[in-house]
Amino acid sequence: MTRQQLVQLIRERQSYLCVGLDTDIEKIPQHLLQEEDPVFAFNKAIIDATRDVCVAYKINTAFYEALGVKGWIALDKTVRYIGNSHFTIADAKRGDIGNTSDQYAKAFFEAMPFDSVTVAPYMGEDSVKPFLQHAGKWAIVLGLTSNKGASDFELQPLQSDEHLYEKVLTSVSNWGSPDNLMFVIGATQAEQFVQIRKLTPHHFYLVPGVGAQGGSLKEISEKAMNEDIGLLVNASRAIIYAGKGEDFAEQAYKVAKEYQVEMAGYLVKN
Amino acid sequence: MTRQQLVQLIRERQSYLCVGLDTDIEKIPQHLLQEEDPVFAFNKAIIDATRDVCVAYKINTAFYEALGVKGWIALDKTVRYIGNSHFTIADAKRGDIGNTSDQYAKAFFEAMPFDSVTVAPYMGEDSVKPFLQHAGKWAIVLGLTSNKGASDFELQPLQSDEHLYEKVLTSVSNWGSPDNLMFVIGATQAEQFVQIRKLTPHHFYLVPGVGAQGGSLKEISEKAMNEDIGLLVNASRAIIYAGKGEDFAEQAYKVAKEYQVEMAGYLVKN
């Protein structure tokens, strides 16, 4: 999916919501466990219910890998089921030396039809670049994350007088363009958003941490929206586990719809 | 596998060689392509040939993920085929917020029987700790890697007057112990090995970059061996692609045996 297509999708649906499919077999409603593929059955119901109010789905690969081969099958079925109507994100935090990153890009962009994959920057340029060489595909590189551990390394000050995550943003943005590169910026880091937007004015951010992790949608939207919106705000647990009974998909829709309505309000001002 | 068991294995086999199964379906001998699972057939032959001269196998997950579900099946079969006679490494460079890293640990330590997984440190403590909470299992955290991109971030000087990778080594070593935590240190970074050993005197290092990437086994062994050896030196392409014909496993054995003989020489002095 191109940047232009993504922006158009956001304007049409009046939403920059990304639904995170962190599907944990231990947390899905009991009645689904009799299905042949409970994880896929859960995802299918969530996708059917939320399609019209979101523009992206983020599949957290860890939850699928934890189930072994069966999980990898559910992952593959899920991304194919979503199809081309949404921007798809393999939230996989990959990254390795060049010839290995090439293989990861192949895994998510060729063996499976993902639009994008999240990438860890620690190993530098040759670990990121292979994800930027597929037309219409995106690398979403970790900038400043939403977790407590962000302070351990990401927020360390460098001798060049910037924090590590700022160095990552400025270096990595030279390796790609706003057409094939986004950054992960945690919603819990709202006080940094103005500075981050200064460093990378035109890039999209994938923003996790709203909902279960406590970030504010209002604050993020006010501080970080740009001329092309530039935001995909993700909620996972707050949406997909909104209900625990047979009406779980309906409950998920209600929460997703609330986010969409709130987002429509911020889009009016854009 | 415990540290004690690993050290004993090294002393018995007179080898600290790790064979890297970066098995690329486009590089394996043609005649294997008629097998039902060519990747597993290749791995099985390499494992049978090299078992006696190495103590570890490192499976680079990217090459398996690139094949989709079939690849994940080959990965699973390979680690089970190796069994308990060797230390097994899922070279997967994982790492995410706590609840997600938990799932990755489950994937490699429960759904599959790996002894260890390589972990990217960028996201800090809560992204690493879940890999340290499984008895007899190990996290192998990226310290200083062998690729060109290591200079982009890992070698950046911090205001605390250490390089980022040094901060990673000292911080991460407080989150675990030499009994459940190793570091990845690239063989091409030999000039840093003395300083790295000072910072982490008792930890094992997984050292890739010998062979195809040009690192020197002699230099690493002289600079970084400790009282418990403390080294697993990996070679992938140099061993597994030593031959291209029907005798590929025999050729792989010959190269692996050369490494083992050289290693035995360095072990005498230990």
TrEMBL record, chains A, B:
Gene3D superfamilies: Aldolase class I (3.20.20.70). Its EC number is 4.1.1.23. The keyword GTP-binding does not apply. InterPro entries: Aldolase_TIM (IPR013785), OMPdecase_type-2 (IPR011995), OMPdeCOase_dom (IPR001754), RibuloseP-bd_barrel (IPR011060). Keywords: Decarboxylase, Lyase, Pyrimidine biosynthesis. One of its GO terms (molecular function) is orotidine-5'-phosphate decarboxylase activity. Pfam families: OMPdecase. It catalyses: orotidine 5'-phosphate + H(+) = UMP + CO2. SUPFAM superfamilies: Ribulose-phoshate binding barrel (SSF51366). Residues 16-252 form the Orotidine 5'-phosphate decarboxylase domain. Pathway: Pyrimidine metabolism; UMP biosynthesis via de novo pathway; UMP from orotate: step 2/2. NCBIfam families: pyrF_sub2 (TIGR02127). Belongs to the OMP decarboxylase family. Type 2 subfamily. This is Orotidine-5'-phosphate decarboxylase.
